[in-house]
Amino acid sequence: MLKRLTTEIGPRPLGLARIIIGSAALLRAIIAGETLTALTRPEILRAPYLDWLPDPTMPLVVLILVIWVVAGVLFVLGWNITLTGSLLFIAIIATLALDQQTYSNHLYLMSWLILLLTLADAGAGINIHRTDRPVFMWPVLLLQMQLSIVYGFSALTKFNESFLSGDVFVGVLVRGLVPFPETLRTPRFLVPLAALAVFVELFVAFFIWRTRFRPAVFVLGLGLHLAITLLMADTLPLLIFSLEMLALYPLFLLREPLRLVWDDDCESSRTWARRLARLDLLRALEPVTASEGTRPDPITESAHSLHLVHAGETARGFRAIALSLEHLVPTLWLAPILRLPGVRGLGERWYLRGGTCPGCRPIDQATR
Amino acid sequence: MKGWRRSPVVAAASIAVFLAVQLAIPISRIGDDAPRFGWQMFSTAQFAPEFVVVTATEEIEIDHRDYVAMPRADVDFETLLPPHLCVVVPAAVSVRWEGGEHQC
User: Fold this and answer.
1) Among A162, A164, A165, A293, which has the highest number of CB atoms less than 10 A from its own CB?
2) Which chain A residues have a beta carbon less than 8 Å from that of B39?
């Protein structure tokens, strides 16, 4: 069991998380700059945690922000993560420590994520050096746990009258990027909406760990974050929070190879394989041409020229495309919709009409 | 750098410490009036206290945005802001807010 913690895994989902969270940190520097600069003005209240902490003077604020931005850019690029991650972490902690008014949950979360990404050697994948090296599993596990802990406690603390009665939504569903309809600002709508928000947070916290429920988790998680970012006031902080959380989702994708078998004699098969490979930022797919196969395929039909072999099971045709999309960034959040009965039926009809290769050679699921 | 990450003992200890901190802090903050460090995101209604500065001749309604860097519900502005307003608003005699008054 302990040995499993130090298993080496692919670094690209972690690298992607680093890029997204590092970019969110750069966006957050704008808010930190505003707050810290305000604190240097004499008419603004100062609320230090401890009396001996330094006052936020302008030189100190500039120093923090310069470190934040320079380290942030290099962190996004994946250059010397131990150094740049540590500096970025120090800049964020210094900001949090200077005054009670600089606190926010998403900045506090960011400090944890930067620390964990630094621990995890998140520069190992998708980096400026263009070389990937494997990472150890246990720091990635910490990042996964962080996601569940944030959603879990966020849901638990919402079990109070103020939230479940919809009062909180009355106050926060204002001045959003998308105006919240006034006709829906009633307890009849807001009370179920509050319950739904708690349900989604709990569902994501627990079921993201279960392969079977993960597609639903991705769709619900994206819906939750789109809703809070678009409908609630203070779009920028909410966008930053959403980026922090959504960046962690791909860490939960399965690590077993997804073998995409395609018929190299078939134009449509080749086109689809090429399209999917272009989207495969995390290199989740292992494309294999049918000509590399060794045996005739007893179970597949010639009409299905594209197959996805995963964990001993084979998906064919449209299902293979849909399943591939569920493992690719950025389609993984929306691809599960293709599982819905009506959508799936439409997709299969569309695939059979335009994407088939009558006469194509059968493809062996056990290629190679 | 990679060497210490390879150790199963370091891995297990790190997970144990992480979980202890990440569970203990939020649990200890449940039910806190000024919750922070516990992932209480939009869990309770926010409020913005309204302050009035009283001088010898007038009462001035204060826009708190002119005197605070970030109006957060988890900062105890009722304790912190009145003494500050006494210093920065000329001729302030007292500061009033709903449920309290501070003499300068």
Assistant:
1) A293
2) 105, 109, 149-150, 153-154, 157
Residue among A123, A147, A135, A149 at smallest CA distance from A22 = A123
Contact at CB, B43 and A158, closer than 8 angstroms: yes
Task: Please report residues of A whose CB lies closer than 8 A to that of B33.
Answer: none
| A132-168 tens-digit pLDDT | 999 999 999 999 999 999 999 999 989 988 889 998 8
Q: Which of B12, B30, B80 has the CB atom closest to A157's CB atom?
A: B30
Short-list A301, A322, A302, A298, CA closest to A310: A322
B21: contact with A, CB 8 A cutoff:
no
Give B91→chain A minimum CA distance, Å: 15
C-alpha distances in angstroms, A187 versus A182, A233, A307, A362?
A: 12, 20, 49, 58
Nearest CA to CA, how far is A198 from chain B (Å)?
A: 10
* Contact assessment for residue B44 and residue B31, using Cβ atoms and an 8 Å cutoff: no
Asked whether the bond before A330 is cis by omega within 30 degrees of 0, the reply is: yes
The string of pLDDT tens digits covering residues B49-70 is 789 999 999 999 988 889 999 8
Q: What's the pTM?
A: 0.91
Rounded to two decimals, the ipTM of the complex is 0.90
Cross-chain Cβ contact B40/A100 below 8 Å: no
d(CA A112, CA A106): 10
Q: How many CB atoms lie within 10 A of CB A50?
A: 6
A272 closest CA partner among A283, A254, A291, A285: A285
